[in-house]
Design brief:
Number of strands: 8
Largest sheet: 8 strands, mixed
Radius of gyration: 22 Å
Strand order of the largest sheet: 3-2-1-4-5-6-7-8
Structural class: alpha/beta
Distance between the termini: 76 Å
Mean pLDDT: 91
Low-confidence stretches: 1-23
Strand content: 5-15%
Order of helices and strands: HHEHEHHEEHEHEEHEHHHHH
Shape: globular
Helix content: 40-55%
Number of helices: 13
C-alpha cells in the first residue's frame, strides 16, 4: 500500500475528536484582553492586565456597574500611588490601557476574553452565547468561575477547543495564584497560551482538570463544611475551632473566620451547586448553621455580621 493509502486508513480508524485535538489552532498573540464583568474579581483582573501593558476592554451591560468598576480600579491604583508603589506616570499609563464600554461589539477584536460575572450558570451561558457570535473566531474565552463547570460553558460558546478556566483569587491585585482549567475539549496550544498569559501578568499558574471546585475549593470548601458541621453538633465553640486550627495546624485564620471573610453566601452557593449536581458525594453537604445565617442575611464581613461581628476596617 502507498503511504497515502496507509494514512487514509489510519485517519479513518481514528476518532474525530482525536483528529481535531492534533490540529494546531491559530493561537493569537495576546495584545487585547476583554474583561466581562467589573465586580469584585473582574476589576482586579482588568487592572492586573492593564498594569502589565495589555490593552484592556472592560465591559459591563449596565452603565452603573461599569462606573462602579472604573471607580474600583481608580481607587486601587490611587492607593498604590499614595503609598508610592507606583509613579504618577505609571498610574496614568495603566488607566490609558483600559477602555470602558457597555457595547458588546467593542469586544469583537479581543484576543482573550475573561469572564468574571456572578456565579450563575444561566447568566454565564447567555453571555458566552453572545460572545461566541460577536468575537473573532480565533479569540480564546476564559471563565473566572470558582465552582461551575467549564465544560458546560465551553459547549455553549461554540468554541470548546478555545475555552479554559482562569480562576483568580481575591484580592486579585495581591493574590498570586491562578488555577488554569482545561476540559477534554481544550486544545493543548490554547491551554499553554493561557498559562503563559497568567505568567505575563506576574501570577503563578497551576494546571487542573474540570473537577468541581478545581484544586483549592475542592479541598477548602469541604474543610469549611466540616467546621460548620462541628458547630451544628455543638462539638466545640466557634472561637475554639478557629484557635485550634490556627495554633494546631498553623493556619493564618480559623475556618469560621475564613468563611466570614470569603462570604457565607459565596460558600453556600458553591455547596448548593455541588449538592444538586453530585447528590451521592458525602463531602458535599449544607450545614444547618450556614442555612440559618443566609436566611438572616448575615453573610460575614461584607454585611458586618456572620459568625463574627465585623467593624469598619476589619
Amino acid at each position: 500500500e502507498t503511504t497515502k493509502m496507509l494514512l487514509a486508513r489510519r485517519l479513518a480508524c481514528t476518532p474525530v475528536h482525536r483528529c481535531l485535538s492534533t490540529l494546531s489552532p491559530a493561537v493569537p498573540k495576546f495584545e487585547t484582553v476583554a474583561c466581562v464583568g467589573l465586580g469584585l474579581m473582574g476589576h482586579g483582573i482588568a487592572q492586573s492586565a492593564a498594569q502589565h501593558n495589555f490593552k484592556v476592554v472592560a465591559f459591563e451591560q449596565e452603565q452603573r456597574f461599569l462606573d462602579s468598576g472604573r471607580s474600583r480600579i481608580e481607587g486601587s491604583l490611587g492607593k498604590m500611588l499614595k503609598r508610592e508603589k507606583i509613579t504618577q506616570e505609571q498610574y496614568d499609563g495603566v488607566l490609558s490601557n483600559i477602555t470602558y464600554t457597555t457595547d458588546i461589539n467593542d469586544l469583537a477584536d479581543s484576543d482573550l476574553v475573561v469572564e468574571a460575572v456572578i456565579e450563575n450558570m444561566d447568566l454565564k451561558k447567555d453571555i458566552y452565547s453572545a460572545l461566541g457570535s460577536t468575537c473573532k473566531p480565533e479569540a480564546i474565552f476564559a471563565s473566572n468561575t470558582s465552582s461551575l463547570s467549564i465544560t458546560e460553558m465551553a459547549l455553549v460558546s461554540g468554541r470548546p477547543e478555545r475555552f479554559v478556566g482562569v480562576h483568580f483569587f481575591n484580592p486579585v491585585q495581591m493574590m498570586k495564584l491562578v488555577e488554569v482549567v482545561e476540559t477534554e475539549h481544550t486544545h493543548p496550544d490554547v491551554f499553554e497560551a493561557s498559562k503563559a498569559w497568567v505568567g505575563d501578568i506576574n501570577k503563578i499558574a497551576v494546571s487542573c482538570g474540570d473537577t468541581p471546585g478545581f484544586i483549592v475549593n475542592r479541598l477548602l470548601v469541604p474543610f469549611l463544611t466540616q467546621a460548620l458541621l462541628m458547630v451544628d453538633r455543638g462539638d466545640a465553640s466557634i472561637k475554639d475551632i478557629d484557635i485550634s486550627m490556627q495554633l494546631g495546624a498553623g493556619h493564618p485564620m480559623g475556618p469560621l473566620h475564613l468563611a466570614d471573610y470569603i462570604g457565607l453566601d459565596t460558600i453556600n452557593n458553591i455547596i448548593t451547586g455541588w449538592v444538586e449536581k453530585f447528590p451521592d458525594e458525602p463531602a458535599f453537604v449544607t450545614p444547618d448553621c450556614l442555612t440559618e445565617k443566609i436566611k438572616a442575611g448575615d453573610l460575614g464581613r461584607k454585611t458586618g455580621k456572620g459568625f463574627y461581628h465585623w467593624g469598619e476596617g476589619d
